[in-house]
Amino acid sequence: MEHKIPQIAILDNNMLAALGLKQLLQTVMPVMQVSIFHDFSSFEAAGPDTFFHYFVAVSIAVSHRDFFLRWVHKTIVLTTAVDPSQQLSGFHCLNLNTSEEELVRNLLTLEQMGHKGGKNFPALPKILSKKILSDREIEVLSEVAQGKINKEIAADLNISMTTVITHRKNIQEKLGLKTVSALTIYAVMHGYVDINKI
User: Fold this and answer.
1) Closest CA to 26 of 16, 40, 36
2) CA-to-CA distance for 33 and 87, rounded, in angstroms?
3) Which 3 state secondary structure label does DSSP give 179?
4) What is the pTM of this model?
5) Cα(157)–Cα(165) distance, rounded to whole angstroms?
6) What is the DSSP-derived secondary structure letter of residue 122?
7) Can you tell me the distance from the alpha carbon of 197 to that of 193, in angstroms, rounded to the nearest whole number?
8) What is the dihedral angle through the alpha carbons of 140, 182, 82, 72, rounded to the nearest 10 degrees?
9) What is the pLDDT of residues 93-106, one digit of tens each?
10) Tens digit of each residue's pLDDT (9 = 90 or more) over 17-60
11) Distance (Å, whole) CA 91 – CA 73
């Protein structure tokens, strides 16, 4: 029996925002395939039932509120409102008007709330689930994910700055991840750092 890759839909007419969110989602949930729709009709034509989650621009969610209320457990409304009282009530909301670090943290929090420990997700591909990093590299990665600079990491782990830099370079090469945000996502998803420490 063939296993289908779970699908996530992004409904947003802002292409730049949709592409950026798609990249983040594919990092946070590498077992998912992400599709972008610029309007509700193209999303509807693709078959909404096939999607695991809907990330929906607030304007589209308001225009089609009845539909999304029926699928409230699948729907995450994309908003720029910081104050929860100004967000669309009855839905999980994701504030896009924030720093990259905060957006990553919010995505990871949403993932942990709904799918703690990967619950409801298919198994990661073997290459992503096997241990790639050494124990010392995992320690360095955990410190990086907590926002520490090289000098702090060196002091915490009682190693030289040169050694920290070498470990960071090796981690980036092994994982193919260059940004601190991507490394943070990897560290949280693999349980190397608690989300409350980032």
Assistant:
1) 36
2) 27
3) coil
4) 0.65
5) 13
6) P
7) 7
8) -120
9) 888 888 877 888 88
10) 899 889 888 877 666 789 999 999 999 999 999 998 899 999 99
11) 8
